[in-house]
Design a protein that fits this description.
The structure is a single chain. It is built from four helices and 35 strands. The chain is an alpha+beta fold and 525 residues long. The strands form nine sheets. Strands 1, 2, 6, 29, 30 and 31 form a six-stranded mixed β-sheet that branches. A hairpin with a 6-residue loop joins strand 12 (136-141) and strand 13 (148-153). Helix 2 (418-441) runs antiparallel to helix 3. It is globular and about 90 Å long. It starts with 16 loop residues before the first strand and ends with a helix.
Length: 525
């Protein structure tokens, strides 16, 4: 059965749709790399978007503040220190101002990104990792342990680095895994980082204990030539993309405990573009992005057969060369956004955000689509993980107003001033007057109306919070970057308040119409 003719099944994600950002919210005039290496070329976190760029005489990448949309200055500073082309970049999952890069010069470098706007090129890396004999194609941070980085190169080796040292140059990794006989195309960790899955050019999937380097399982299926492999969260399953023996693009689902035969093999089409899979363990949704095309397919994974359930396809005529994804803690929960891509379009020198949205009418926080998710705090130190301890990620809530573990430095709380006290008193007085007025207008439905009013006031309090940041307790900006961020926050808050006012106007008209109908009905009798 082809995936685009699915049987009907009930799912809260059946109507998820992709919404491209407006032109004002895209990143224009970005010199995207022309490299043909099979990586994403883009890395995103809630503060920055990093993209590999063209650079004469070495490798470089750009780090752009996430709020700095529009046209990019052609002389915008770069991060340039590699002697060869940059092949892969990854942000640290626990520090939004640390990024790792790998290059054709056989090195891996760790960079500190300043918290203010870049004014000049960054050429000095905090750490340099020397160990690979050939170019380094892939890097991955450990998902739960801090300062543990994995790298793999064209010397067929995987090296594990402990960055929790004072030395600026590290020449000896803590572990080298040498079980592969060809180039490693993909690496993926399970949820707690105790297992590593790899896809190799020899068409084999390997399940490895990363600390000992032992190969626990090996899959070699003649009908499926693997390119990318991915752990599916806590479902005890793996997913791979590749091609069939007839050169059609293919998705395969594997049981983690038995890699002898795939659970599902699904042919997609006869195109030649590489398939990049992305999995959201919170919603159990799988996104398949095709390099060289503009489409994004998405599926829902279930533990029961048929396991792989096709949902929809986002279509675009603009082909993507690479793609970045925003961590969950950077999404807009007020818009019911469950995933966000950053699509690299080299033909237009454009980076286009695409939001995957669950259509909901309610303005309240949707707890059913936002379970607890991985935050920005590590569960283990590097040494604890090397000593054999395993822990799952530290989970946080995305609900506005809840404590979000952010990697930004915490500002000291200010003492409440007379001005803030007066504004709070005036606000409470306004809320009380609004409550009385609405209760007068809807006296016939007093009990139900009072409950609605309290819910609305609670929503208004939540609307003042932007990802846990109270706009009324904001410290004054001290730098140009803080001023710019404050400006964009205020613009976003104005947009939300306008939407809220328009929705309130509609609700008031509906209430007036209901009151009029009730009076007409009572007049008849």
């Amino acid at each position: 059965m082809m995936s685009w003719h699915p049987q009907y099944r009930s799912s809260k994600f059946r109507h998820v749709y992709g919404k491209p950002a407006s032109k004002e919210k895209c990143y224009d005039c970005v010199p995207i790399t022309c490299s043909v290496h099979d990586t994403h070329f883009c890395a995103v976190n809630p503060h920055f978007i990093a993209v590999v760029t063209e650079c004469a005489g070495g490798g470089a990448f750009l780090v752009i503040p996430i709020c700095q949309t529009g046209k990019l200055d052609p002389h915008y500073p770069r991060v340039c220190g590699h002697k060869g082309n940059v092949l892969d970049i990854k942000w640290s999952p626990f520090d939004d101002f640390v990024i790792a890069s790998s290059s054709e010069d056989a090195t891996v470098k760790i960079w500190d990104i300043p918290k203010h706007l870049l004014t000049r090129n960054i050429t000095g890396a905090r750490k340099e990792l020397l160990g690979h004999a050939r170019r380094v194609g892939l890097i991955e941070w450990h998902p739960t342990a801090s300062n543990i980085l994995f790298s793999t190169g064209y010397d067929y080796k995987i090296m594990i680095w402990n960055l929790d040292t004072k030395e600026p140059v590290i020449q000896n990794p803590v572990k080298t895994i040498s079980c592969h006989k060809d180039v490693i195309l993909s690496m993926s960790f399970n949820t707690d980082g105790s297992l590593l899955a790899t896809a190799c050019r020899d068409r084999k999937i390997r399940l490895i204990d990363p600390r000992s380097g032992a190969v626990l399982q090996e899959a070699s299926c003649k009908s499926h030539r693997v390119n990318k492999v991915l752990f599916l969260g806590n479902m005890k399953k793996l997913l791979s993309t590749g091609t069939s023996r007839w050169n059609s693009r293919q998705i395969a689902l594997w049981e983690q405990g038995d890699l002898s035969v795939p659970l599902v093999e699904e042919d997609l089409d006869g195109s030649s573009g590489l398939l990049f899979p992305f999995y959201d363990s919170d919603t159990r949704m799988l996104y398949v992005v095709s390099k060289g095309e503009g489409n994004i397919r998405y599926y829902e994974i279930s533990s029961e057969k048929p396991h792989l359930n096709y949902l929809m396809e986002y279509r675009s005529h603009l082909p993507q060369k690479g793609i970045g994804i925003m961590p969950k803690r950077g999404l807009d929960v007020s818009a019911c956004e469950i995933f966000r891509f950053y699509k690299l379009i080299p033909g237009k020198s454009l980076i286009e955000p695409i939001s995957m949205i669950v259509p909901r009418r309610s303005e309240l926080y949707q707890e059913d689509i936002y379970p607890l998710t991985a935050g920005a705090q590590p569960a283990l130190s590097a040494q604890e993980w090397l000593n054999g301890i395993n822990k799952g990620p530290v989970l946080v809530s995305l609900k506005p107003g809840s404590e979000i573990l952010n990697s930004l430095p915490q500002f000291p709380k200010k003492e409440p001033s007379l001005r803030s006290t007066e504004s709070n008193w005036y606000q409470d007085r306004t809320e009380r007057m609004a409550m009385k007025e609405i209760q007068k207008q809807s006296g016939i439905q007093e009990n139900r109306g009072q409950k609605k009013v309290e819910e609305r006031l609670q929503e208004d309090r939540q609307m003042r919070l932007s990802n846990g940041f109270d706009l009324f307790e904001c410290p004054p900006p001290k730098t140009e970057n803080e001023l710019l961020q404050m400006f964009y926050r205020q613009q976003e808050e104005i947009r939300r308040l306008r939407e809220l006012v328009s929705q309130r106007d509609i609700q008031i008209k509906q209430l007036e119409l209901e009151i009029k109908n009730i009076r007409m009905d009572s007049g008849r009798y």
